[in-house]
Amino acid sequence: MQAALARPNLISLAAGFTDTETLPVAETRALLNELLRPLRAARAALQYGSTTGDPTLRRLTAERFAKLDGVRRGARSPWSPERILITHGSQQLLYMITEALCDPGDIALVEDPTYFVFLGILQSRGVRGCGVRVEADGLDLAHLRAVLERLRRRGQLRRVKLLYLVSYFQNPTGVTTSFAKKRAALALLREYEPAAGHPIYLVEDAAYRELRFAGADEPSALAARGFTERVVYAGTYSKPFATGVRVGFGVLPEPLFSAVVRIKGNHDFGTSNLLQQLLARALASERYDRHLAHLRRRYAHKAHVMQQALERHFPPTVEWRVPQGGLYFWARLPGDLKSGIGSPLFRAALAREVLYVPGALCYAEDATRAKPDNELRLSFGHASERDLREGIRRLGAVLHAQLEQSPSAKAAVRAQAPPPKRRARGSGG
Amino acid sequence: MQAALARPNLISLAAGFTDTETLPVAETRALLNELLRPLRAARAALQYGSTTGDPTLRRLTAERFAKLDGVRRGARSPWSPERILITHGSQQLLYMITEALCDPGDIALVEDPTYFVFLGILQSRGVRGCGVRVEADGLDLAHLRAVLERLRRRGQLRRVKLLYLVSYFQNPTGVTTSFAKKRAALALLREYEPAAGHPIYLVEDAAYRELRFAGADEPSALAARGFTERVVYAGTYSKPFATGVRVGFGVLPEPLFSAVVRIKGNHDFGTSNLLQQLLARALASERYDRHLAHLRRRYAHKAHVMQQALERHFPPTVEWRVPQGGLYFWARLPGDLKSGIGSPLFRAALAREVLYVPGALCYAEDATRAKPDNELRLSFGHASERDLREGIRRLGAVLHAQLEQSPSAKAAVRAQAPPPKRRARGSGG
Known about the structure:
Aspartate Aminotransferase, domain 1; homodimer; globular; 14 helices; alpha/beta; disordered C terminus
């Protein structure tokens, strides 16, 4: 894939990069000029800060998300500034929380499919991912219970340390898990804690939360009363503002907070102060929110462009859904058509200069099920409208050709019985 | 210490922070304006980059240090851009290299004393630090051999993965290890590799290299012909430019390079592009070098201020040396006078509102020797000239009072026989 990305005519629908045209160039320049003009403030921005992060950015983060979650403010709030740690992107928090919670041989429950870089983190630390199915409204709670039961019967519950949930416009499926489901998942995890012998945390990855372009925000798991001591929230300002400005944050309960601050001290002793103060100023000046409103309109438009192209060019037996936010469409192929890196489809797509993320990359190694190999992640974040149209056109042509050669897929077409979820529409898009 | 740092009248000679007055405010503002004006370049700076780092910054880094090391350029150079990884400060590289090389139970050879945050990294990963003595011209090679021999006899050599060396104006002692000693250390490590059964790397932490204000630069270990495949070089642009701009870099041989790039991908998939391009532009425009020349004069002056205060206020039986660069003086107390956090000296110093780093914090847990507890790290980096003078005056008064109460120290004074190294002068200062 690395080699393919260097090809000049390649259209990548694979990259998780954000839209280039809307990057806040003028805003960033103005903010940095404001920040670096008063000598005292400028010097503070160019000096080391603390390991936990800039106090103003922590406070503004607490205020922003307490409001979004509809929870009380103050020292006992789940969104108290004292619980917030600023990081070099939310990815760093995911890494550190895994480092803090998991030993080699431990188990992390993950959505099936999930964010593939998190699977890489688990693998690098010798932690096993164990898949929990995803439904149209998020995590499949019945399956979560079945998985916990299975682990309990096998005496493996004591190795389970966390459930990792990409809760908003999930990477890769675009699905959002409802607040009710998050609360129910927390209750379920608590039910199994006595048998596990330790806390089982819900690690909520909210990286795409602010990239909603349809529907209303769901509260985070931190808003679930009585459960906040079991929630780790990973947020980011990189994707909603500028990905070149790597600033994310975590909300963590004690004693995890202190443990992760120690790890952060070892990793890099603190996030670049210049980047933190840039973001703090963006938030305080409301330039962040104005930019975000602009960005949401832009992604709504690009998602619509991709939707129209999919409707026009994809065979009707390919299932996909319109997301309400985030950067991704998720498509499922009919019959026995495969999408993996070794598949004829992937190779034919590359030959036509179009790249997607094969769905199989997003599944944990889990012996309890065969790894699905018939899905595609299609990103509308980075490519231009023109490339989105052309990329989907090329991919559609490849799919039509491959379907022609697939007996079972042809049978599915002949039976005129597309799967029930075909083109289920979200309320937006 | 955290609590003490919040006291308004406290003079901290402990912080590793850099000088605030010389932070490049105008330069950074100018560079960012240049960077963010052309739309195409601005967008590139605000977008994700690659995990290895900005190509221009990697190239400029290669050119800069190949020249400094006097080595050839090109693909086979130890300073080839392909061997360079850009990180969020050099600390991140130290963490990742430990992660790549060491398993729990492994051994890292470290200077005795060494950079205390590196000891924290080792401890957090279950790696044992094993101390090698430091002389006035750096690493004690005879002791390095003795330590390797001891480990060989005990069958522990297979656990030894690296020697960590802060090679320029060492944190904490201010000592520089000569190029000849670095080459000899590499040869010694190679001699023990067959018994170890794997490579033993020299991890050269050159964080203070560019902060030289007297004498001439020593080449890095990468300049040792025939040994570059065993050298990891950790450099930084944060301290010489602005600590709020967290950009460091590593030079690594394969297969370590690929292993650490994978780890970096898991940690944060790449260093903030905005910070990298800011540094690349600072280097290319020569603003970096102009700023560095200014900074060196400033630290030379502050080191001189501290030296004069030490001469004036410290008891003559306290040993210390004038460094040729970096941020630190290292002082050794006479007799049985202790400097540790629990010591009367430390408490008396805090009561007088002055803070230092107790030397004991800089020593690995090593059962083969008692941990020295009679040294102080004194930083001239952050405090103003006035605070340097006043801080050393206060500390001197405390030392005189403590010495009055110490029978053995009084005996040393009476004997009129101060230790031979007393006030040994470096060639600079």
